[in-house]
Amino acid sequence: MTGDRYFTPQSLPQSLNAFNTIKNAQSMIATAYVQQQQQQCSEQQQQQQQ
To answer: What is the per-residue pLDDT for 1?
Structure first.
C-alpha cells in the first residue's frame, strides 16, 4: 500500500488541522462575500429612493 506513508498516525492530525483551517477560511470568505453583496444591494436601494 503506497497510501500508508501518507496517512501515518503522526501526519493525520496535521492533515486534519490543515483541512479544518482551509474550511474555516472558506466559510469566512463566503460570509464576507455575502455581507458585501447585501451591502451593495442596500446601497443601490438607498440611491434609488433619493
So the answer is: 47
Q: What grid cell was written down for 11?
A: 501526519
Chain position carrying cell 469566512: 28
pTM value? Answer: 0.53
Listing DSSP states for 1-50 in one string gives: --GGGTS-TTHHHHHHHHHHHHHHHHHHHHHHHHHHHHHHHHHHHHHHH-
Q: Say which residues have a Cβ less than 8 Å from residue 15's Cβ, sequence separation at least 6.
A: 7
Q: Rounded to an integer, what distance in angstroms lies between the CA atom of residue 29 and that of residue 19?
A: 15
In angstroms, rounded to a whole number, what is the distance separating the alpha carbons of residues 6 and 23? 21
